[in-house]
Every structure is written in structure tokens, then in C-alpha cells.
Amino acid sequence: MSHHYSKSTFTTAQHEVPFEMEEIFFSRTDERGVIAAGNEVFRRVAGYSWDELVGAPHKIIRHEDMPKGVFYILWERIKRGMATGAYVKNRAKDGRYYWVYAIVSPIEGGYVSVRMKPSSEVFGTTRALYAEMLKREKEEGISPEESAAAIREALKTLGFSSYGAFSSLAVTEEMQARDKALGRLADGRLQSLKDLLPTLEELNKQQNSLFESFAKIRSIPSNMRIVASRLEPAGGPISAISQNYRLMSDEVTNHLGGFRVEGGKRSLTESVMARVFNGLFMVATSRLQREVREVARADLLKHTERDGFQTEVEVLTNLMDRYKLESGSVLSSVFTDVTALTRSAKDLRQLVTGLDSIRVLCRVEAGRLGAQSASLIPVINQLDTFHVEIDAALEQIMKLADRIKALVEEAMPRSLTGSIYGSADY
After folding, report:
1. pLDDT tens for residues 379-404?
2. How far is CA 262 from CA 3, 258, 259, 265, 270, in A?
3. Element (H, E) at 87
4. Interior angle at CA 59, CA 146 and CA 154, nearest 5
5. I want to staple 120 with a disulfide (CB 3.0 to 4.6 A). Which of 142, 177, 192, 195 is the partner?
6. Residue 402 DSSP one-character state
7. Mean confidence (pLDDT) of the chain
8. Which CATH superfamily is domain 1-186 in?
């Protein structure tokens, strides 16, 4: 059966297919993207019969206004087993269009795409980006791969570290906008995770400040030894102080490794932030998955779906359970790492207190030397500045880490925390 239609068929191409905010639709395909099943909302909005849809490639509903780079990113990610969200403009059989936010999830033997009506501010920003990329694809002839790279670069200028980070925030914003439009209570778990992001950014800033401060003191013991060689015989008090300060500062510097992962290539905070974005995606998606599963179960009981629809309910249930488990696992790992970070900050503060006592001894010795200590004063002043900076940074790090732990605990599933976060333990 042919699924091609002439341009004359699309008499209402500029009009949008209406569907309600509460309506969610889904489709299931094989690994090639060939449609195997879906729900009645999907069929109705697309405007095809089931005979036309089942066995047809999913691109039967692809709209020409969509940049090819978006589908390049989507397929690149889902082929790697990564569930991915994207704004998609689709085309109905009669030429009309409809926008969705789609979550495409790999499953055994294919993929499931769950779609909802988009309405957040992120949606408006994305449409403008799509229009720009589509124009470049047409006028500059850039390839889908080049378009995908350009989309990722554009997202970075908007403040997103990766497409995954964008996808996570987009689905969260859409779920929150959906809740508001349907008169639902705000989702505390999603809000807690969103609040984590600026807190983590501030924590990363404080960590970088910490690294910079310690980098400044690397030369202090050497400077102290040079001054000591001018003021006293070898092995004198200032030489001993410089030696002790060097040993302890080395220990402190080594302890900074607790703030880094991946062999020192990445800060622990950056690693945590990446997982928070992942957790945000999982929590929002598990909610959407729960909702579409409940709708599918209700439709099955009302006999409004096709024969064999029980299989789709089972697929959706398995996906919901998977997202629930993965979100809990991700947030548990975040909580564990933030707890370790707090412990590292406290240990580091104790070591810095030891360094501070050596600084005090240095000042006492300078007082004993009187006018002779003039060359030592700049070194002591440098130490004073360093210790003020480091104390302030460590205090902020511990406060921020405690705040992050509290927010993560609020966002974790009830089964993992023993706390009650509402009626839905998703």
C-alpha cells in the first residue's frame, strides 16, 4: 500500500490538528522504525487508519518543517540505548500539523514513543532554533550530522552543557506546565531537582575557587626557605616552619583529590550535576510513563482500543517500572557522592586548621626577629590572605553540600527515604 500523497491532498496544511492537553498518545515501532502498534489518540490525531499505520515507517507522519539534525541526534542517542526527548512537529494525513514533546525509549525489539502536548517557554525557544536550523539546511546545504552539531552548539550558547541536559530540562518544564494547565498540584520532586541545579553550579564555583587558592600557595614554602637562608643558620626555626608547611600543604593538596573523579579530569560536582540532569529526566519521564500506562489500562477496560492492546499495556508497565528504578538508583548515587563530598570538605578543613597553626608560628617567629623579619612579612601576608579565602570557600562548600543532600532526599522515591512525598510513589 502506498503512503505517498500529492501536495494537492494537503488542503489544510496551515492548520493545526486539535487535541487536548490531557490526551497522551504513544506508538511502538520495531528497530527499523516501522510502526507496530499505538493507541487510538495517536491514530486519530495522525488521521490514518490502522491498516495504513501498522507496517508503515514512522516517518509517515514526519513534517517537512523539522530539521534533519534533530532526528540525527534522536537516532544517535536511542541506538546507544539512551531514552531521549525531543520537540517534534508532525504531519497528519490531510496535511495539517501538530506539535508534541516525545520521549523515545529503547525496548527489546524496538522503541516506544510517548507524546504529550507542549506548552512551556522552552517550546517557544526550541521552535525558533528549529526554524534557524531548517533555514541553514536548505540554504547552506549542511548535512544532518552538521545540523546536529550546530544544534548542540546553539544549545550550549543557551546554557545547556549537552543535548541530554536540554532534554532533561525540557521534559521537566513540560510536565510542570502540563500540571499547571490541568489544575494539578506542583510536583515537589521535580522542583527539588530543578533547585539542585543552581545550587550545584554555585558549589562547582566554590570548588574551583578552592583549587585556585591552593594553587597559589605552592610556592610559599620555597619562598619561606629563601627568606630563612638570609635570616638564620641552616636548620633554624623558620626553615623548620617552611618544611612543616610544605609537608602539610602537600597533604592538603593530595586531599583535594576527593573533590575530583575520572582520574582528576572532572570535578565531583560536575559528575553529580550530570547525574542530576539524568535523574530529572528519569523522574519526569516516569511520571509521564505512569500516566500513559494508566490511560492505556483504562482504555483497555473500556474496550476502546484494538484487540491485543493488553500487550501495549504490559510494555508501558515495564517501561514505567524501569524508569522508577533508574531514577531511584541515580538519585541514590548522587546522595552518596554528596555525602562523600561533605566528608572531604570537613577533613580538608581540619587539615587547613593545622596549616593555620603553622602560619601563626611563622608570625610569632617574625615578631621575635623584629626588624630583621621585614623580608618575611610579605610571605606571612600571603598566608593570611590564603587562609581567609580557604576558610570562606570551605564553609560555603559545606553549607551547599548540606543543602544539596536535603534537596536530593526530597526528590528520592519514598521507598528509598522512608519519607512521604505524596500519593504517587513513582
Report:
1. 888 888 888 888 888 888 888 888 88
2. 50, 11, 11, 6, 11
3. strand 84-91
4. 30
5. 177
6. H
7. 86
8. PAS domain (3.30.450.20)
